[in-house]
Amino acid sequence: MTVLVIGAFFIPTLTLLAFALLGTFQSTTQKAYRPIF
After folding, report:
1. CA distance 31 to 37
2. For a surface tag, which of 15, 27, 28, 35 has the fewest beta carbons within 10 Å of its beta carbon?
């Protein structure tokens, strides 16, 4: 029961965290590789 509750709480948090990290990583790489005009 507790494992289900912990999983239901942690899985969405981990997915949101992964999406946030991916977004910041993509934005930083785009800034780094995009030539500044």
Report:
1. 12
2. 35
